[in-house]
Amino acid sequence: MEGGALALPHFRSRVGIGSPILLSADPGAARRSSGASGRSRVSRVNPGAYPRSAGRGRTWKRDSPEAPPRRSGITRVPNHSPEMPTERAGRTKVSNVNLEVSHHRAVAAVRLLRIEKGKAFVDLLNEKGNSSGENEMSYVERTLGFSIRCLDNRDIRLVTVIVAGTVRWKRYLDYLIMSLCSEEKVFREMEPLLLQILRIGFFEILKLNVPAYAAVDENVRLAKVALRPGAGNLVNAILRKLLLLKEANSLPLPKIEGDDRAQARALSIIYSHPVWMVRRWIRFLGKEEALKLMKWNNSDPHFSIRVNTANGYTRADLIDRLESLQVHYEKSTMDEFVRIQEGMQTVLQAGLLKEGMCAVQDESAGLVVSVVDPQPGETIIDCCAAPGGKTLFMAARLSGQGKIWALDINKGRLRILMEAAKLHNLDAMISDIHADLRLYAKETTATFDKVLLDAPCSGLGVLSKRADLRWNRQFEDLEELMCLQDELLDSASMLVKPGGILVYSTCSIDPEENEHRIAAFVQRHPDFVLQSVHGYVPAEFVTDEGFYSSSPTKHSIDGAFAARLVRSVL
């Protein structure tokens, strides 16, 4: 499994929260007549009177992020019918472009809805540029009933920042939203779209430092137009109360006190992570390191790009292109890599990936390839190869001599890998195998000089780049993953020649997926001996046991692990 290596034009970058960004009202906002400015009185009706029909007004119950202390706040939601055009049978659909609402906020709200349903990625940045915006406008029209103007690159950047940040801080935001409702039922039964708009407003005020007038007025206007006037009044009242609490430095956050379990619950809200992750990290890393890790996961991710030497490019060539595009960069300690924190959209749209000049790949993945240490003339199999970042880097290291087999169970991802291999002028050195490793190892008689198993894992080392992953992982997943990792390790070991090398790697920082799996494997396979990675990677990445380990908080790259094992000749 490739933790952070996406070497293809299909790359989807994980963008974080930059410096405070002014998400101001759209041009001409002063001429709008939505009535969003000023204080609005909120009608009080029975909160159970939500529309029961399918659609935006459907009652939707959710679990409480944590039960907060009871506070005075808004307890009722007006139940006015949405004032928006509907398409009736027999009528021709007319595009209804709404120039009143903040277009990037409308897109962000709809995208957040789709993410919760598992139908969208967090980001919008890709090489397609405006077509990405066109897709989002289509979703907005189908969800909200009106169209918005075209998104430009700046809009796409803003949407990505808001969505990624809102997803990361969801637990923290939901706790505060519920704290400002005097009845928990209001939060639990809040309409999905209304909740997303409130999350956006809270995130802008608390984490982006958006001016109060913009955060309040624009989100109120969006709620009024997309839902109904009463929904806008509710948003107005809650956001204004949040502003008062923020100014008084009295946000109703939980205190870190009590036993270990209670402290972990409080920290999980303050730093917006699942409780099980917090407890696990405190257990394995200690409280101080766990806090550093959660802060890293909530910070701006940076990205690394690797120059494609197989196409004759050098890092100097790549730097020249970045400078011509005015993209700020930082040289990596690895010769083939350059780090960038902003400007990924520019890099993608400039076609650097399509030209085969470079690939998006974290240095942590590059160091795994260093542990494999591909040498010209060797035969290597990458057992869980897609999407192919490590496969391509290993092929480039062979300098035109040798062969790599890329095996994966996903045929579509293999096809993308081979397209990238052709783009990087490495297709003659790479052959694909569409198979389940466990079945392939039993059926084939082939053996290889080196075998890389980049195993499916929890991805706990890449949470900074993958904003939604923390909410998609459950504690129970670890047990299933560890069983799968053991099965794949046993199968991969069957493909190693006597005297050959087996490398096991993950993009996890969890010892039970890493060191514990190797210890169990060696007990089952006494013909394999652990070999230290010293000399293959810099000393700072070598553990006392001889493993490769990168730490986000210590090395400022993704968390990853690798073990190098040698099969005995006899």
Please, could you describe this protein's structure?
The chain has helices at about 105-115, 130-145, 155-170, 170-180, 185-190, 190-205, 210-225, 230-245, 260-270, 275-285, 285-295, 315-325, 345-350, 365-370, 390-395, 410-425, 435-445, 470, 475-495, 515-525, 550-555, and strands at about 5, 305, 330, 335-340, 360, 380, 405-410, 430-435, 450-455, 495-505, 530, 550, 560-565. The protein is an alpha/beta fold. About 40% of the residues lie in helices and about 10% in strands. It starts with a strand and ends with a strand. It is built from 21 helices and 13 strands. It folds into four domains: about 105-250, Orthogonal Bundle (N-utilizing Substance Protein B Homolog, Chain A); about 260-295; about 305-360, Alpha-Beta Plaits; about 365-565, 3-Layer(aba) Sandwich (Rossmann fold). It is globular, with a radius of gyration of 26 Å. Mean pLDDT is about 85; it is low at about 5-65 and about 65-95. It comes from Oryza sativa subsp. indica (Rice).
Secondary structure layout plus pairing:
Blueprint lengths: L4 E2 L96 H14 L13 H15 L8 H16 L1 H10 L4 H5 L3 H15 L5 H15 L2 H19 L12 H11 L4 H11 L1 H11 L5 E5 L7 H10 L5 E2 L5 E4 L3 H6 L8 E4 L1 H10 L6 E4 L6 H9 L5 E6 L2 H13 L6 E5 L2 H7 L4 E7 L14 H4 L2 H19 L2 E11 L8 H10 L3 E4 L16 E3 L1 H4 L4 E8 L3
Parallel strand pairs: 6-7, 6-9, 7-8, 9-10
Antiparallel strand pairs: 1-5, 2-4, 2-5, 3-4, 10-13, 11-13, 12-13
Helix pairs in contact: 1-2, 1-3, 1-6, 3-6, 4-6, 6-7, 6-8, 7-8, 9-10, 10-11, 14-15, 17-19
